[in-house]
Amino acid sequence: MTTAPAFTIGIEEEYLLVVPESGALRTAPEKLLEDLKEALGDQVSTEFLGCQVEVGTGVCATVADARADLSRLRGAVARIARGHGLAPIAASCHPWGNWSDQERTEKPRYDKLDTDLGAVARRMLIGGMHVHVGIEDRDTRIAVMNSLTPWLPVLLALSASSPFWQGEDTGLASWRVSVFDSMPRTGLPPRLADWAAFEATTGTLVELGIIEDASKIWWDLRPSAAFPTLEARICDVSPRIDEALMLAALVQALARMIWRGMSRDEPVPDPLVLSENRWRAQRYGTAEGLIAGDPARIVPMKLVVDDMLNRLAPDLDHFQSASDAEKARGVVTGGTSAARQRGIRDMALEQGASDREALVQVVTSLIDAFDS
C-alpha cells in the first residue's frame, strides 16, 4: 500500500444572483464584485455569465474545517449581495431564467470559450458543486478515480437541485446535467491504467491545439489541472449548507475507503450499467433505485445509501464526519432539493398562485435556505 494521501478537501460552489422581491436573475454590478473581492480575495470569482459568482474554500483537513470556511463564504456573499439589493441562491438551475437574456462576463478566458463553443457555452445557466480531495501520488489519483466512478450516481442523486428550466418542470431531478452534457469532454471518466495514460489521452488534445490544458477536460470526476487533487464534479449545488457538507464528507470518505482497499482486486463495473445509473440519478434523484448486485437488480435508494454508509463507517470515524454523512439518510426519506422545490411550487398552485407566482415562492425558499 502506498503512503497515505492527505485526503484534504476543498469545496467550490457556484451561485446565482437574484432580485429578492421578484426572484428574477440579475447581472452582478461591478461594485458588488469589487466588494466581494475586497472581502474574500481569491476565494471568490466571476463566472461565464454575469449573474453568477463562484466561491472556493481553502484546503481543509476535515469537514468541520470546511464548514467554518464555507459558512464564512456564504455569509459574506449573502451580506454583500444584500447591500446591493440582490440575494444569492445555491440551486443548479433558476426556475425560469432564460440563458439568452443573460449578459456574459467580459474576460479573455470567457471570450475564448464563447469562440470555441458558441451557444453551447452561452447556455450554461447552471451551477455546480465541486469537491477536491488531496491525493498527492498521481497513479494513486487515477486508481481512486477508477473505483470512485461507480459511486458518482449516488452523489448526483443526493445532490439533485435543478428540476425547472425556463419556467417548465423538466421531469428530471437534475436538469443541470442535461445542459452540461452538451459540452465536449463531459460525462463519466474513462477507466485509465495510470497517470501516464491520462497524460497521453489529454496530451493528444493539447498537442493538436484543441485545448490549452487538462482544465478543459470536464468529466464528472477528474484529476485537477491546478492542484494535486481528485475533483468530484458530478454534484448539483446544494441550497442548504448541511447537504453540501454531507456530500463533501461522502467524497472524502469514499476516497479513503477506496485507497484502503487498493490491494484487493475489484470487478470492473459494466460501463452501460454505470451510464444507466447516472441517468436514473439525473431523472429520479433519490425517488427510485439504482442498478446493483450480482445478479443485477434495481436496489432502492435507501438500501444503496445504507450500504454506502456502512462501508464508509471506519473512514467517517477517521475524519469525525459521520454526523455530516448521516444526513444522506434524511435526504432519501425527506426528499432532495428538487423534490422540495416541486413541493413548494405545487402547494402554491393549490392555494391559487399563478405559475410564475408559484416559482417566485420557490426562489424565496432558496434565498432563505442559502446561509441558514
TrEMBL record:
Q: Does the keyword Nucleotide-binding apply?
A: yes
Keyword Nucleotide-binding listed? The answer is yes
UniProt entry keywords in alphabetical sequence? ATP-binding, Ligase, Nucleotide-binding
Q: Which InterPro entries match?
A: GCL_type2/YbdK_subfam, GCS2, Gln_synth/guanido_kin_cat_dom, YbdK
Which GO terms of the molecular function aspect are on file? Answer: ATP binding; glutamate-cysteine ligase activity
- HAMAP family in alphabetical order: Glu_cys_ligase_2
Question: What NCBIfam families does UniProt report for this protein, alphabetically?
Answer: gshA_cyan_rel, PRK13515.1
Q: Which family, according to UniProt?
A: Belongs to the glutamate--cysteine ligase type 2 family. YbdK subfamily.
Which PANTHER family would you find in this protein's record? GLUTAMATE--CYSTEINE LIGASE 2-RELATED
Q: What does this protein do?
A: ATP-dependent carboxylate-amine ligase which exhibits weak glutamate--cysteine ligase activity.
This chain belongs to the protein called Putative glutamate--cysteine ligase 2
**What high-level taxonomic lineage is stated for the organism?**
Bacteria, Pseudomonadati, Pseudomonadota, Alphaproteobacteria, Rhodobacterales
